[in-house]
Specification:
Length: about 350
């Protein structure tokens, strides 16, 4: 069957303070070059970091989206023929250089030469997406596309972040997750609980409390009602959590979250505040308290495959709501207001 030449996409108009997402028809379909494939999308999750594209926080392409699932419908030159018709996931990491020290250690997610979906190339909120054959993720049979989608960014980001609390933090010890009820956070609660950590979930509102408890948190602290620092200290013998993962990207979250970690603990930066915001802690405090500060951006290919296997076994169960493609602009606005509990996924029109 001949493929169409134009398509429907979600497009960012005037990125910046007045930026908005609009649905646009008649946009050209790109063709796969050497080592690339064309994927006909089924669905795509919408991530809080897609708001950065809309708000013009950095240089991005016109079409956002970086957790999409679809079927390979066309191969570029030099791509193995068995990829045709495979169901695949397209992640934030569109490609890596393959030659640097990070790539050689399997940490492709930290490759300085990486290209990113929605940033360096157009994203997954389109009907047909060009993807790099080497950096696709094969989706196992038995994992529905709408379940796989949020694992590609939200799930993988938190699989990576939870792995970073080791070796300092041991199973049975406390991890506080700031922003635990959102798209990334709630899967992080489940991953951390599955790994044996005691999770203190921090977020606001009853829906998020219910979700975090469902995902395995031992406690929920509502920042809209409680003093977060004293609540976390009360839960942890007055010392603070052994590890803190800051998933929220607000400046306020980063100003408060370092106070939640105990001495010799680990603090992991995940959420993305504006680029000019600096980590709000003095080297003297970091030194005196013996803190370990780490950064985490998505995760490795091995962590991706492990996560999909856990989903297949029913051990990782993202909370998803599926919407029509035309709802994408409204979902971006809800994300900007921190109103989304779990993950909203849109169906891409066939
Ligand atoms: Zn994301
Ligand atoms: Zn590299």
């Amino acid at each position: 069957m001949a493929l169409p030449t134009s398509q429907t996409v979600a497009w960012i108009e005037s990125p910046g303070a007045e930026g908005k997402l609009v649905i646009r028809d008649g946009v050209d379909i790109q063709q796969p070059a050497k080592g690339e494939v064309l994927v006909k999308m089924e669905c795509s999750g919408i991530c809080h970091s897609d708001c950065r594209n809309v708000e013009g926080m950095g240089k991005y392409e016109d079409i956002p989206g970086h957790e999409g699932v679809g079927v390979v419908v066309k191969l570029g030159p030099d791509v193995a023929s068995d990829l045709l018709s495979k169901r695949v996931g397209i992640k934030w990491l569109w490609s890596a250089c393959g030659n640097c020290a990070a790539c050689k250690r399997g940490k492709v997610n930290n490759c300085p030469g990486q290209l990113n979906t929605g940033r360096s190339v157009n994203g997954t909120l389109q009907q047909y997406v060009v993807a790099h054959a080497t950096y696709l993720t094969l989706i196992p049979d038995g994992v529905p596309s709408e379940v796989a989608a949020p694992l590609l960014c939200a799930g993988l980001s938190l699989a990576g972040a939870v792995s970073k609390v080791a070796p300092e933090v041991q199973p049975g010890e406390f991890i506080a997750i700031v922003g635990a009820g959102g798209g990334l956070g709630h899967i992080g609660v489940q991953i951390a609980a599955h790994k044996g950590y005691k999770v203190i979930a921090i977020d606001g509102g009853e829906d998020k409390r219910v979700l975090c408890k469902e995902m395995g948190a031992v406690a929920f602290v509502d920042y809209t009602k409680e003093d977060v620092v004293s609540a976390v200290k009360a839960l942890t013998d007055g010392e603070g959590a052994h590890g803190v993962i800051c998933v929220a990207g607000s400046e306020r979250a980063y100003q408060q979250a370092p106070s939640l970690v105990r001495n010799n603990g680990v603090f992991v930066c995940v959420g993305l505040p504006p680029d000019d915001f600096m980590f709000p802690m003095s080297p003297i405090h970091i030194a005196n308290r013996g803190l370990v500060i780490k950064g985490s951006s998505t995760g490795t290919s091995e962590q991706m495959d492990e996560l999909l296997q856990l989903a297949l076994q029913g051990k990782i169960t993202p909370k998803i709501e599926v919407y029509e493609f035309a709802d994408a602009p409204k979902i971006i606005q809800e994300l900007q207001r921190y109103e989304v509990t779990g993950r909203k996924v849109v169906k891409v029109p066939s």
